[in-house]
Specification:
With 354 residues, the chain is an alpha/beta fold. It contains eleven helices and twelve strands. It has a five-stranded parallel β-sheet, sandwiched between helices. It has a five-stranded mixed β-sheet with strand order 7-9-10-12-11. The protein has a two-stranded antiparallel ribbon with strand order 6-8.
Length: 354
Amino acid sequence: MTGVRVVLADDTPDVRALLRLVFERAGFDVVGEAADGAEAAELAGEHQPDVVIVDLGMPLMDGLGAIPLIRRQAPGAKVIVFSGFTSDRLVADALAAGAHAFMEKGTPPAALVAQVSAVVSDESALGRKPAEPDGREDLTFVVHELMTPLTVIEGFATMMEARADTLTAEEIRDYGGRVARSATHLRALIQAVADARRVEGGSLKVERELLDLGALVPDVVAELDAVTAPHPVVVDAEPGLVVWGDAGRLRQVLTNVLSNAARFSPAAEPIEVMARAAEGAVEVAVADHGPGIPADRRGELFSRYCRLGNPAAGMGIGLYISRGIALAHGGDLRLADAPGEGACFVLSLPHADP
């Protein structure tokens, strides 16, 4: 397929790097990479590629929203979904939106190239076809999240094995680093699923000690600088906000809420973090300037696998686990009314007298 021009769209850089390597080795010309659906449509209009390969779960604009826009911007391009979602409903939605084919993450590189080549050649085998929905949507989202790091691990490990005699030391370090990062990510995802089961069974354990949340909050914000960029994070934390808490678990809650604020806010919009003493409690509020939570969906926000219809929202268990951690501390995590546009989450914990 020498000369076939390709745009890659996936919010995981290591997945894009793997796809670029696979397709360029097969003779394709990768002319652009996008981290979200809007950028993918823009690149499609600019480059008029032969193929756009797009993930479904991306921030700002997901794959389902991007497909018709890509088709309008580049009418001659074949749009192929490459996703870890296994839901037959989402496959049907993608094809109905205008995708020419649907392929699952985890497809071996040679098979991936062969299937894309078939689509470009207008052959009849256009990837997976939807079956009747099987009612296992919760499992679908978990599998999707797990498949992304697994695809990177398997893809780069396969490349290292196949090219062991020709890889340079720099390439080995690069491939090995991507495998290691994805393995760490995969471990974290598996741990999150295990935590969700513990919350559901009431067996989530916390090991508490005296902590000053006024000191912990700025530390967590500083650690997440790369995650929250380019959003400026404004921290206002009083000293002496002492609680009996599990530092690791409370970092987990703050990390989840801050990551969500960054993910669902427009670029460069500020995130405000305020830690204050309340009546018998210590409260940490995290407010963003994103679209907020629809009033009719607030009741399901802390449910397990709640994604509010957004395929870019991960597994939908972060807030479920975070609230479980807060409850295990004798506190709570709630959605408060944010001033103006956006969402405001408040972590409340019993105040401890040192």
